[in-house]
Fold this sequence. Notes:
Elements: H1 24-38, H2 60-81, H3 88-101, H4 119-132, H5 143-153, H6 166-179, H7 186-197, E1 200-202, E2 205-206, H8 217-233, H9 241-256, H10 281-288, H11 296-311, H12 360-363, H13 370-373, E3 376-380, E4 385-390, E5 395-400, E6 433-435, H14 444-449, E7 455-458, E8 471-476, E9 479-486, E10 495-504, E11 507-516, E12 521-525, E13 529-531, E14 536-540, E15 543-547, E16 553-560, E17 569-578, E18 581-590, E19 597-608, H15 614-617, E20 621-626, E21 629-634, E22 639-641
Antiparallel strand pairs: 1-2, 3-4, 4-5, 5-6, 7-12, 8-9, 9-10, 10-11, 11-19, 12-18, 13-18, 14-15, 15-16, 16-19, 17-18, 20-21, 21-22
Amino acid sequence: MSVAPHLQLPPTDRVLSSRTGWTRAHWEATADRMLDALTPYATPGFAQYRLPGRGSWSGVVSDGLEGFARSFLLAACRIAGAGGAVDPPLTERYAAGLAAGTDPGSGEAWPRLTDCSQQMVEAASIAVALHETRPWIWDRLDAGVQERVVDWFSGFVGGRTWDNNWRLFQVVSEQFLASVGAPYSRSDIEGGLDRIEDWYVGDGWYTDGDGRNFDYYAGWAMHLYPLLWARIAGPDGDGGRVAVYRERLSRFLEDYQHFFGSDGAPVHQGRSLTYRFAALAPVWMGALGDCTPLAPGLTRRLASGVLRHFAERGVPDERGLLTLGWYDTFLPSTQPYSGPASPYWASKGFLGLLLPADHAVWTARELPLPVEESDTYTALPAPGWLLHGTRHDGIVRLVNHGSDHNPPAPGAGPDADPDRGAGEDDPHYAKLGYSTATAPQSAPHALVRNVDGHLALVAPDGTPSRRRRIHPLRCEGRVAASWSAARLPGDERAYRIGTTSVLHGPWEIRVHRVESPEGAVVREGGHAVADRTGPFASSGPDWALARTAEGLTSAVVALYGWDGGADGAAVARDVESNAYGPHSAVPYLRSAPRPGGRSVHVSLVVLSRDRVHPEALRTAVRVRVDGDAVVMTFLDGSRVEV
């Protein structure tokens, strides 16, 4: 694919960057285009950027502040990275915005910081940007403007934030106050840093608040802000914490490098995905903090691959703007708190510009990603995930047995309700499988059917069960397992569904032990594939397949326990339901109505850019069920028992 011409990028350099062709100059040009594109949407004093698009629940003024704060972070990377040698209007715009935004009489003043207000999020970006650009902006502000900025930030002192990654917004903002000699609360800072210790679960992973909230916030918030705080606090103010943060980030990056496909796509999982290349924040912070296990050439190859991936797919758009979506505008992949400037948290993906131009990250030759060298299998017991990359097509798949974005269960014991206190199932967390090539079906009309990436009990009226709280059981090597509760309308009982995923070669084999009431149907959905045109679909008695025009194929094959006969496999089509394209399709298997009780179902799940022959795959795995044991024997002679 070619990069959109409106970006006006320099020529590629295939000697220095044999994989992507991109250099630091490409990053600077992209940042400049994004910043220049914002100016038509600025208020007269540049305190707000009121961008087109759906407003958030916080209102137009808050959304305008968001446009200033998040783009200021991008501008800060550009200004500081160039040692201030940028076009003067760039620094002048943000200096003017600080003056107008903190002036109650300007007509475009920012809302005051109050407990749990959206302004807290934006203040953290402003604090980081002010610190990084201090010689060129803060130190040159009039004393009166500095006083107003301090007064605005003082709303944090003693304030209350939401009890998740928001604690860190208070930490960095009050540390900025401390750095300029303003009043602040040491207990606010220490309390926030102490609180994130409760959410560290090992192997470099944090959950974002209580519960099993594993997603990109682990990188672009939980790892990022403590080390940004350290840059503001300086070497004498960290109390010994920074060594711990650096060690944790290094461990995190050992596995995180496997989340990206050879085409630069990140795994499409979790909330706030409209931040897109903010997923690079921990990668750059590892280099900035000198705590990365990645070689410099690998760091740049990974980062440039991601940025180029989006540029090739129209991000930013022809206006130079980031829209609410993934590639094109797609609101179902956003949240109600997302406003038209929310995507500019993507600015975190440009932190690498803070590294000097002669840093090895910018001068070393690119190295291949892990998935470009071999097939990869990575078990992540902390979040309960398996990562599975295949070299021949560059796809990385995530098998989910641990992240559900629900609060922890309030009770325990055999009689406790396993879903008590859980919310609705979120398609960006509840699916069994995610990947770098697909997105979950997330539009409201698709959620009613809830076919893709899900093992459901389907009631006689067609209502499918949901996967709310996930209870992890095992995650090691190439095997992961969990269970969840299934409920059907008019039935108070919670039916247990246990699932074990086994990776073998390019395949995932799912073994389900299902409890069901009489008359319910068991249904298994594969990955949803999407394109600008309708995917090709085909099915047989025990398999179903969907394939895009570019050859991306999703298939499910019945291996054991599926008795649906002629109606046992099909493809569900939908429109405007998927972030990857307007036309989507999901292959699925379907049993006959069950007599009730326990049953075992084994499926082969395929996502590949290869030609897929489901009939042949049906014979590639022999399955034998012996009591509680399921034994799988593969063509290469290997044997797995679960």
